[in-house]
Structure formats: C-alpha cells, structure tokens
Amino acid sequence: MHSIVCVKEIPDPETPAAAFAIDPVAKRAIPAKDKPPVISPFDEQAVEAALRIKDAKGGKVTVISMGAPTAEKILKHSMAMGADEAVLLNDPAFDDSDSATTAYVLAQAIKKIGAFDFVFCGRQAGDFDMGQVGSGVAELLGVPSVTLAKKIEPKDDVARVERAFPDGFEVVEVKMPALITVSNELGQPRYAPLKGIMAAAKKKVPVWNSTEIGADASRIGAAGKRTNILRLYIPVRESKCEVIGGENEEDMANKLAQKLREVKLI
Amino acid sequence: MSDYKGVMIVGECVECAPVAITYELLGVGRRLADSLGEPLSAALLVDKVGDAAKDAIAFGADKVYVIESPLLKDYMTDAYVGALEKLCQEVKPNILLMGQTPMGRDLAPRLAFRLGTGATLDCLDLKIDPQSKLMLQTKPVYGGNALAELACEKCRPQMATVRPKSMEPLPRNDSRKGEIINFDSKLDASQIRTKFVERVKEKVEGVKLEDASVIICGGRGMGGPDNFAPLRDLAKALGGAVGATRPPCDNGWVPATMQIGLTGKIVSPTLYIAIAVSGASQHLSGCSGAKNIIAINKDPEANIFKVARYGVVGDYKKILPPFANKIKELLKG
C-alpha cells in the first residue's frame, strides 16, 4: 500500500486570543513570537491514518506539503512519526494561493510521485477552515473522494470508510485508489519516538518547484486563484460582561439566576 | 460571465420534508436575489420529492428544480456532483449556496472544482456589494480570532456554504407562487464510485448539542468526570444539553462527541453557560454563535469573560449548587 499525505504548516491554533495578530495588508496572521507554526491538527491525524494502514498492511507513506521552507519541520515531524519519505513544494510562484491553486500544485506533485492507493488530507486546514483542498485534489486526479473519515479499512481494492456525523457515523465503501479526508474523530495521532526523531533528522527532504511538477503558470499563485480575500480583520468584541457580585457564592448564584429570569433567558 | 443569472440554493430533505438548513438557505437566498433583482431557485435532489417543492416555494423560491432518482436516496458525492453539474450547465446560476452540513461540506468543494469555480465554506454572512454586484462572503478564520471577507471575481457560479442557524428563514407564505420543474440529470449508477453501506446513529441522552437552545459547558477547571453530574442535572432542568471543551474530552472525563470547538461541534444556542471554561480561541470558534454566554470562572482575567454577557467570579463548586436550586425554584414559580 502506498499512501500519500498532504500536510500544511499553520500558526499554532492554541495561540491565546490576546497574542493573536494579523497583517491586514498581506491578509494573514502574524505568528506569535513564542508560538512556532505547527502541522495543522487534522493533517497530523491524516498522517496517523496513513500510518495505521501501513501498520496493518505494510507499504509506504509519502508526505508532501506546499509551503515555506520552514514547512520542512512538519515534514520531518511526519517522518519522525513513521512516514518514509517527504517532499516540500516550494516556489515563490506558489505564493498568494487559494484552495484551487493549492489543490492544483498538490495534484501535480502527486502525479509526479506516481501510483498510490490512498491520498490522505486533513478534513480542513486549522487556519482558514475551508476544507476544499482534499476534494479538489481528488477531482484533479480523477479519483473518488470520501470526506470526514474516522476509520479506514482497506480490503483488496475496496476501502470501508466510516464518516463522522454529528449524531453518529455513516459507512461507505470506495474503490481504490481514493482520496480520504480525515476528521478528528479518528483519534489521537501517535507521538514521534526519539528513535524516529533522530532518523528523520538525518533524512533529506527534496524541494520541488513549479517547473519540476510541470505546473501551468496560469493555474498557480495569484493568476490561478478563484477566490480572493478582500479583507481580513479581527472583529471588535466590546467587553460588556456584567459581573454579578454578592456577599458570598450563594448570594452571587441567586442573583445570577434572578438576572437570567429578568432578561427572560430562563 | 454575464449569462449567469439568479441565485440557486441546494436544499436538503429528509423523507420528503425540507430540513431547517433548507429554509435558512431560502431566507438568505431570497435576500441576495432581491438585492440583485434576480430570481431565486432551489434544487432538490431526492428519491421522492413529496411536498418538499411546494414547501420551498412557500419559503421564498421562485423556481424549484426537482431531480428525482432512486440513486439520490442517500447522499453520495459522485451522484450529487454529477447531477448538479448538469443542472448548473443548464441553468447557469450566478450564485450557488448550500449548507455547511455533512452534505454541503462534501459536495461544495468537489462541485466547485468540477465547475471550475471557487467556493467559500462556512460563511456567517453573505451580501451583495452595491458597486461590483459581487457576493461578499464573510467567514471566521484562525479559530474565530479573525474574519475574512472573500469574493469570487473571475468565475461563476459564486459558491458558498452557510453555517446552520446563521441565517434567518422567511415566514411561511402558502400564497406565494412558483414554478416546479422536473430536471432529468441522466444519472446512471456507473458514475457513482462509492457505495452507501449504512448510517449508524449513536445514542445521545436528552437533547442533541447542535439542536439545543440551552447548553451547559464544562471546561478544564471541572477537574474530573464526576463533577459533570451537576451539569447534567442543570441541563435537564433547563431542557438543554451538556458540552465540554477539549481538555475534559482529551482526558477522557466525557466522550469526545461532547466537545465544542474548532475540532468538535459548532453550536449556536440561545443560552450558553460556560463553567470553568477559560475561553481558548479554539473553543470559542465552536460557540461564537451563542446568543448569550454566561461565564462562571474563578479567574477574573479568563478570556471567556470577554465574550460573556453575564459573569460570576468564583469557585463553580460553591456556585453551581445554589445556582441550580434557584433556577429550579424560578422555573417552578
């Protein structure tokens, strides 16, 4: 089995709101000083999904990322978890991307890598929460897609996939090769063992540019974008919390309950 | 591009009846169509339509395209994308909307790529720019810390999904006139590369989080699984549901299905009582749609107070029992 996993480097989603800042001109977040960027949490679960298949069926896991040179770190992290190979897709021509151009670059790279049984993506990136790239890659590769997966069981050339729903799950069968997007219900990704970290440190991560993946210049960067961010802003939240005081906890509790009745919330 | 006209919404039905998101989409769709001076249509992909098309007209649609096929009984990506691709080629809508639901989240991106256009997912607001006539699409990004306004300038249709409960439906009006058109999308089973096996519903006690108008949410400060019992008791009294932030779920105090936040459920209750919840941004992104947040936390600097309407600073273990008693007393009286 060969699984290819697409991962993205994002600002740490656990950054406290107070430390969060944006560059309204470049229309992106400014990473907080003491919070280095991380692998998007759903993408880390996508790596985990691929590794579980490798554990059960053997084979190889290749991890790719379109991003800045710093994204090498999340590729090495994926290899430390157990992935075999990684490729970084980096080119200034990829800058100013949207879901359409990102999916195109990833699909071109996957075509260059060659045959696969699965492509895994996170259900959405933890920064822009669009959740489109996976389905887009599938469409560009001409393979079926199953989104929001929490469990994947391949048998021969058909995979049984459980899709997470708000009130349970749905079971579908998909013919391989297929693209699967992974939801958090899959469960905790494994920790990278020290041995893995040391082995990954020694591995080289090749960098491919737009020429190496045979990209059409009209389909990458600003030229290929189909959606445009007009404005990025931090909503002004007036802190207008009315703090209910009192002589003691019981008094405060009573007053809060009465307040809720007064304003007809209960 | 100028031959693309009108707003189209993709409805969702369960057993011949449109579900809430369909009415919300018709509500926002009507508003957008009126500001453009263009018609509003609804696409219903169903195995049997029943009265759903008439319902869509009563809630604002000028036209309803009904695609009826046994292949559309359970949502399957290839079937729905294929059918809507045909319909969009024929109707050429300027704007195409669906819900940010398990169906819309799967369908919208793949259809956008099939049609060669762009989509914005999980919008909280949609409006027409008076000058450019483009649909301006506002969505939360970076875990709700920021909002982005996007537009699809070069391609059609302009596609978006809208978050459930973020849009108001119109009141039902049965005197509204509309046209029902049966559309043959020429679907055949060979196009569908996935096979539906089954839907498994997990039992939830009481009210579902997504549907609850009252939610009691416990955070890291709850300290352990047993402390959630009084929350359930209070939720029961208020006819609501109990949720949790990530740490109680990660620590196994409560099931992961109770998690509210970026990696959990997105909720929009009328009353949200956050107990021992610090207010990390990844949690707030799941409850920012709540109309009234009440915070009980011992740390007066906790971020949750920034978004709360009312707050009490103190130990929840001492506050919750008298609070629950008083509420029960008020509800009785």
List the helices and strands and how they pair.
The complex is a heterodimer of chains A (266) and B (333).
Chain A: E1 2-6, E2 9-10, E3 21-23, E4 28-30, E5 38-39, H1 41-57, E6 60-66, H2 72-81, E7 85-89, H3 99-113, E8 118-122, H4 133-141, E9 145-155, E10 158-165, E11 168-175, E12 178-182, H5 194-202, E13 207-208, H6 221-224, E14 228-233, E15 242-243, H7 249-262
Parallel strand pairs in A: 1-6, 1-8, 6-7, 7-13, 8-12, 9-12
Antiparallel strand pairs in A: 2-5, 3-4, 9-10, 10-11
Chain B: E1 7-10, E2 13-14, E3 17-18, H1 20-36, E4 40-46, H2 52-58, E5 63-68, H3 77-91, E6 95-99, H4 102-115, E7 119-123, E8 125-128, E9 135-141, E10 146-151, E11 158-162, E12 179-182, E13 194-201, E14 214-218, H5 229-238, E15 241-244, H6 246-250, E16 271-275, H7 281-287, E17 292-297, H8 304-307, E18 310-313, H9 316-332
Parallel strand pairs in B: 1-4, 1-6, 4-5, 5-12, 6-11, 7-11, 14-15, 14-16, 16-17, 17-18
Antiparallel strand pairs in B: 2-3, 8-9, 9-10
Structure at a glance:
With 266 residues, chain A is an alpha/beta fold.
Describe what this molecule looks like in 3D.
- The complex is a heterodimer of chains A (266) and B (333).
- Chain A has 266 residues and is of the alpha/beta class.
- Chain A has 2 domains: 2-224, HUPs (Rossmann fold, 3-Layer(aba) Sandwich), CATH 3.40.50.620; 239-266, no CATH class.
- In chain A, 29% of the residues lie in helices and 28% in strands.
- Chain A contains 7 helices and 15 strands.
- Chain A has helices at 41-57, 72-81, 99-113, 133-141, 194-202, 221-224, 249-262; strands at 2-6, 9-10, 21-23, 28-30, 38-39, 60-66, 85-89, 118-122, 145-155, 158-165, 168-175, 178-182, 207-208, 228-233, 242-243.
- In chain A, β3 (21-23) and β4 form a beta hairpin.
- In chain A, α2 (72-81) crosses α5 (194-202) and α3 (99-113) crosses α4 (133-141).
- In chain B, α7 (281-287) links the parallel β16 and β17 (292-297).
- Chain B contains 9 helices and 18 strands.
- Helix content of chain B is 29%, strand content 27%.
- By secondary structure, chain B is of the alpha/beta class.
- Chain B has 2 domains: 7-191, HUPs (Rossmann fold); 209-332, TPP-binding domain (Rossmann fold, 3-Layer(aba) Sandwich).
- Classes of the chains: A alpha/beta (266), B alpha/beta (333).
- Chains A and B meet through α3, α4, β9, β10 and β11 of A and α4, β7, β9, β10 and β13 of B.
- β14 (228-233) of chain A pairs antiparallel with β10 (146-151) of chain B, so a sheet runs across the interface.
